[in-house]
Amino acid sequence: MIRIGSFVIVAITVFVLGHSCQAFAPNAVPHSTVKSLSKTSLNLGDTSIFSDPDSARRLFYFWFGGTSGGGGIAVAAFPQMFSRFQKIQELKGIGPTLGGEKLGMSTLLCGLPEDISKADVEKIVNNKMSTEKMVAKGPQDSYFAQKGYLRFEAFEQANPKCNPLALRAVFDAFTTSSATVDPREAQILLDSFKQDTSIINKALISNKLKGYSAIGTLLLLLGIALSTCGDAFSHGWFPDWPGNQNFPIGLVSPGFWTIPQYWT
Question: Taking the complete model, does pTM exceed 0.85, yes or no?
Answer without folding.
Answer: no
